[in-house]
Specification:
The protein has 716 residues and is an alpha+beta fold. The longest helix has 21 residues, at 3-23. The radius of gyration is 27 Å and the shape is globular. The protein folds into 4 domains: 3-141, Immunoglobulins (Immunoglobulin-like); 147-324 and 377-616, Glycosidases (TIM Barrel), CATH 3.20.20; 325-376, no CATH class; 624-715, Immunoglobulin-like (Sandwich), CATH 2.60.40. Strands 25, 26, 27, 28, 29, 30, 31, 32 and 33 form a 9-stranded antiparallel beta sheet that branches. An 8-stranded parallel beta sheet has the order 22-21-20-19-16-11-24-23. Helix 1 packs across helix 9, helix 8 (469-481) runs antiparallel to helix 9 and helix 8 runs antiparallel to helix 13 (557-567).
């Protein structure tokens, strides 16, 4: 959905507030609040049969009546439950009522009476009419892992992180991939080639292991690894064998055979149509069980060490498609004569795996007429509907890696909404996937890559959450940089536009249950989009059009620091893409997959991340607290995070001018003549932990923000 949808919906909300403000000078719409956090809904993750307490907040002595309206299968006309005013503080009244749950999902909103006025309150705030789209929802039995709520994730593209074991490096011409031989990169700092899927830098599991001290000191809670399974590419989204870690990432204990050989004209010698039949070194490395079992053993040791340090591990699951090298298809004839393997479906019509793929013609042996994902013959689409054997195999994989001896802590699911041939089957598959994963490891997370509205998958029986593009990466990128997340477009109308930012955030955040939002993967960059630091240069382009050096030019680290401050204080799980914290730049794929700049890191930027992570972890309000939008002006936003015990304010000035603002901190419970302490400030020239006190007068924080600055305050 376009960002403007959220903006236009928010505009309707603003008009509603103006309408209500004009009705009476007594009514205070800014004091109204409720959400799905523990103070306002308890228990926040109820089970079937639970009695759930719902609370609503208003200005003190401001309303005549509040009615909780419950909707759902049991209440086709809506059940109206009058709420009792149960207590107050100096500025707010709190209303309370209860809902008795059964098993089905229920929805609710609030009906507000003040004199002759009747209005409504739902997940986007005040409205003049009932909007079912924005009703609050409760799904009995839907729990997301507590460890993931607000956790600090760190995404690693393994080939580009660190080379800990040169003995397992892919060699020059080890095999043929998409028409050319593989290339071993000897210059770690080399820019990725425009068609660089067949070049390898040598990063591996041993390298990640060597850098665990660094990740632990940074404050990382969970390591998300891009695909680890046997695959011919450096990205490994074209999986060759789901049962084993790629020995080029793991251990090669048996290394026999030859590399491919070229004749004097540059062609491959031997079998001209299937040259990989002659890639005997590669065949040994990736099919011999000694290498495969040794690599799995190393991975088990790795996860055990990560767990010993108090961190988690997430694997990337690519189940919509596999790769043309996959042992089930074997288009490259890697497994055709390898001992211990059955014939692939490409090779033989009698293959046990024939039903795993949809063939359009009867042409064997070596049948090239199969369906590929988006037409790519290197990415054969998996045909679950016609193969119970395939379905059961993948369900076993789902359980295998989250169970002993590997004990992985969850799955990130690639292009999850694309899986299957129909919507009905897609939902059936993910329901079964979740059931298998949660039965094997109840604390494992099921996290999907998804663009657009995820509501239909977030009903408690499929995904826990998604990679948060719509309710984090995109609105924040537009506001701070005016750039589209691939650096493919610049929108000056969205740069610094607080209404577009708050409207989009408010709209798209309603597509999550609270427990899904609290574990959503909030990234600034990843392996599919340009690096955030590059977006700050406002250049439209890619490495093939402008060249890689242009991605480093005219970047603004002050704007990146503002983005990180929002990332570490927004609801969800802040997720750092390796190297972002060290100042790495890059256009979209493949330039975003540059090697981590060991020895050339921006140490100040790393320290800034470390301090913000420390602050993030110091208060539970960032993990499970409420959020409220406080102030918006051109190139300025301010919001509050709060719970029963803490009130924290974030102020972001992205302009190159000083901005003064009055922040209504009374809306998060900071009132009277109190004070707020500055926890951290970032400016154009760096950041500071300098302690500074600010006075709050009549619930308003009077603030002057330097150019391109972000300030974090806490009530004391």
């Amino acid at each position: 959905m376009d960002i403007n949808v959220g903006f236009h919906r928010m505009t309707r909300q603003m008009k509603t507030q103006l309408y209500i403000d004009n009705l009476t000078t007594i009514f205070n719409p800014q004091a109204l609040f409720s959400d799905g956090t523990a103070f306002f809904r308890n228990p926040p993750e109820p089970e079937p049969g639970d009695r759930v307490r719902i609370r609503f907040r208003s200005a003190r002595e401001n309303l005549d009546e509040v009615i909780l309206v419950v909707c759902g299968e049991r209440y086709p006309e809506g059940q109206r439950i009058p709420m009792d005013k149960i207590f107050n503080d100096r500025i707010f009244d709190y209303y309370e009522s209860y809902i008795q749950l059964e098993r089905e999902q229920i929805y609710y909103y609030f009906e507000i009476h003040c004199g002759q006025m009747v209005c409504y309150y739902n997940s986007v705030g005040l409205c003049s009419t009932v909007e079912e789209y924005y009703n609050y929802s409760i799904t009995p039995g839907f729990r997301t892992p507590d460890w993931a709520k607000g956790a600090i994730f760190y995404q690693i593209y393994v080939d580009r992180f660190y080379n800990g074991d040169p003995a397992n490096d892919v060699e020059d011409d080890e095999y043929l991939y998409i028409g050319e031989g593989t290339r071993k990169v000897t210059d770690w700092n080399k820019y990725p080639a425009a068609m660089g899927v067949r070049e390898f830098y040598g990063g591996d599991l041993a390298g990640v292991m060597e850098k665990l001290d660094y990740l632990q000191e940074l404050g990382v809670d969970a390591i998300y690894l891009n695909p680890m399974f046997v695959s011919p590419s450096n990205h490994k989204y074209d999986i060759q064998d789901y049962d084993y870690i790629d020995p080029h990432f793991g251990r090669i204990v048996k290394d026999e055979g030859e590399l491919l050989k070229r004749d004097e004209y540059g062609n491959w010698m031997g079998d001209q149509q299937y040259p990989n039949k002659n890639a005997s070194r590669y065949i040994c490395r990736v099919t011999d069980k000694e290498n495969l079992e040794a690599s799995n053993q190393l991975f088990a040791e790795f996860v055990e060490e990560v767990h010993r340090r108090g961190m988690k591990v997430i694997l990337d699951g690519v189940f919509n498609h596999c790769g043309s090298f996959n042992k089930w298809l074997d288009r490259e004839c890697i497994y055709e004569n390898a001992p211990g393997y059955e014939k692939g479906a490409y090779v033989s019509s009698d293959s046990a795996y024939r039903s795993f793929f949809k063939f359009r013609e009867e042409q064997w042996p070596y049948n090239p007429h199969y369906d590929g994902w988006w037409g790519h013959d290197t990415l054969p689409k998996l045909n679950y509907e016609e193969s119970q054997m395939l379905f059961e195999y993948i369900m076993r994989i789902a359980r295998k890696w989250v169970s002993p001896p590997y004990n992985v802590d969850g799955w990130r699911l690639d292009v999850a909404a694309d899986l299957g041939q129909s919507s009905e089957y897609n939902h059936y598959f993910w329901k079964e996937f979740r059931r298998n994963v949660k039965e094997a490891n109840p604390n494992a997370i099921v996290l999907a890559e998804h663009y657009g509205d995820p509501t239909e998958w977030l009903r408690g029986d499929e995904w826990d959450t998604v990679m948060n593009y719509d309710a984090f990466m995109e609105p924040l990128t537009w506001f701070l940089t005016g750039m589209e997340k691939h650096s493919d477009e610049y929108r000056h109308d969205l740069l610094g536009n607080p209404d577009a930012f708050f409207g989009s955030m408010r709209h798209f955040m309603t597509r999550f249950n609270t427990q899904s939002l609290q574990v959503a993967m909030n990234e600034l960059s990843n392996h599919d989009h340009s690096r955030f630091l590059t977006r700050t240069n406002h250049k439209v382009g890619r490495t093939a059009t402008l060249g890689p050096d242009a991605a480093n030019q005219d970047v603004n680290k002050a704007i990146l620091r503002l983005a990180v401050m929002v990332q570490m204080t927004w609801p969800g799980a802040p997720t750092i893409y390796y190297g972002d914290e060290a100042g790495l730049c890059g256009w979209t794929d493949p330039d975003n997959r540059r090697a981590y700049p060991w020895g050339r890191e921006d140490q100040d930027l790393i320290e800034y991340h470390r301090e913000l992570i420390r602050i993030h972890k110091s208060s539970p309000v960032f993990r499970t607290g409420s959020i409220i939008f406080l102030k918006g002006m051109y190139q300025f936003i301010s919001y509050g995070r709060f719970d029963e015990h803490n009130q924290i304010v974030v102020a972001i000035n992205s302009s190159d001018q000083e901005i003064s603002a009055d922040i209504p901190v009374w809306r998060i419970g900071t009132y009277g003549q109190s004070r707020m302490a500055q926890l951290i400030i970032t400016r154009q020239d760096g950041f500071s932990l300098e302690a500074k006190m600010y006075s709050v007068e009549n619930g308003v924080l009077h603030l002057t923000c330097p150019p391109q600055s972000g300030i974090l305050f806490k009530n004391i």
